[in-house]
Amino acid sequence: MRTGTPVELAEIAVLRDGLSPRLCGTSPAHTRQLADLADEVPPIVVHRSSLRVVDGMHRLEAARARGERLIAVVYFDGTDEEAFVAAVRLNAVHGMPLSARDRVAAMERILAAHPHWSDRRIATVCGLAPKTVAAQRRRSGNDRSRLGIRIGQDGRRHPLSAQEGRRIATEIMRSRPGASLREVAREAGISVGTAMDVRRKLAAQNAASPAEPPAGPGSELDVGARLERLVHDPSLRYSERGRALLRLASTTLAFITQSDGVAENVPGHCRDSLRAIAETCAGGWREFGERLAE
Question: Where does the ParB-like N-terminal domain lie (predicted)?
Answer without folding.
Answer: 8-92
